[in-house]
Amino acid sequence: MFNTSEVVLRNRSRLAGNLLVLGPPQDSLLSDLGAQGVALSEHFGTSRMLPRPAGMDVVFGCDLAERPEARFEQVLVFMPKAKQELAMRLALATSVIAPNGTVFLVGEKREGIAGGARLLAAQGEAMKLDMARHCQFWSLRPTQPGTPFRLEDWLRRFDISVSETTVSVAALPGVFSEGRLDDGTRCLLETFDSPPTGRRVLDFACGAGIVGAWLTKRFDTLAVDYVDVQAQALACTRQTLSWNGVSGQVWPSDGLSGVSGRYDTIVTNPPFHSGVKTDLSATEGFLRAAARHLVPGGELRLVANSFLPYRPLIEAHIGPVEILTENRRFTVYRARTRR
């Protein structure tokens, strides 16, 4: 069990009302807590793995748009990675809190709970209730009712241009490379001086939909599908496609578990950016699954940090590897499945 969950359980007597949990960790907390309400997870894989005790509804998403009249006596917020992502969670929390309700915030020191507490205090009367296991547990009584939460109010728009093809991109707090084109994705796009193999393309770990939207605008014969594990990323992708007047199917998937059928090309800047063993295991799992979702002779095109030993993994699971471009930071690999 995560440290934050253990601290919440130390304070379970405070959580007696109809409860909304924002960003629950993937452990047994929901079962052990014994509360009733809704748990909202922005991570598709987590939302599928969370326990579903009686009275607790688990929902995948980053807002409660399908429950516009929902009100909760208490909201428990887990610290996300980014400050603006926390601001968005707190805005959602204060928008659905009932009169005289309480918002709770829990997080570890390394997650930035001190800064999170300052953000919490700006919303009203905040109080530290507990400290344990390098975590803090705070409460908030909002001084005024929250405004209605609309995800579109948090969207930002920026343009990227590569090889004379411009794409308007949607950004939300917490989405990879929010508000800019990261250097790895730029390297990947610059290798497409001709269309990818075949017509059917999968943009895996699509983020804000930059890669697929750019390909569709540059090569108008393509049919691109988009998958990601994060709710905000999927919302950004749908908005990116709309702003650019291009179409595509967009849906959540934890890895490739939610993908059926085969593609001519899978293109990706996958979220495996450190050299630790667990990341390499995740990469190998993706590559093994990718081979099953490529047609014979199909192409995988992938950008990764240059220091990661991807080449032998790609060769083992996909086929012979060609390096399309390489610099000190990034390498773009292309491999084709054996016919």
Rg estimate, integer Å: 22 Å
CATH class bucket of the largest domain = Alpha Beta
> What percentage of amino acids are in beta strands?
25-35%
The largest beta-sheet arranges its strands as: 3-2-1-4-5-7-6
CATH architectural grouping of the largest domain = 3-Layer(aba) Sandwich
- CATH fold-level topology of the largest domain: Rossmann fold
Straight-line distance between termini: 46 Å
Judged by helices, strands and strand pairing, the structural class is alpha/beta
Number of helices: 10
How do the helices and strands follow one another from N- to C-terminus? Answer: HEHEHEEHEHEEEEHEHEHEEHEHEE
Low-pLDDT segments? 273-278
Name the shape in a single word. elongated
Query: Could you name the CATH homologous superfamily of the largest domain?
Result: Vaccinia Virus protein VP39
> What is the domain total for the residues?
2
Profile the largest sheet.
7 strands, mixed
Q: What is the percent of helical residues?
A: 25-40%
Count of distinct strands: 16
- Indicate the mean pLDDT: 93
Description:
This protein has 339 residues and is of the alpha/beta class. The chain has 2 domains: 3-150, Rossmann fold, CATH 3.40.50.150; 155-336, 3-Layer(aba) Sandwich (Rossmann fold). It is built from 10 helices and 16 strands. The chain has helices at 3-10, 29-33, 44-49, 83-96, 113-121, 183-190, 210-218, 231-244, 277-292, 310-317; strands spanning 19-22, 37-41, 56-60, 72-78, 97-108, 124-132, 135-142, 156-162, 165-171, 200-204, 223-228, 249-252, 263-268, 294-305, 321-326, 330-336.
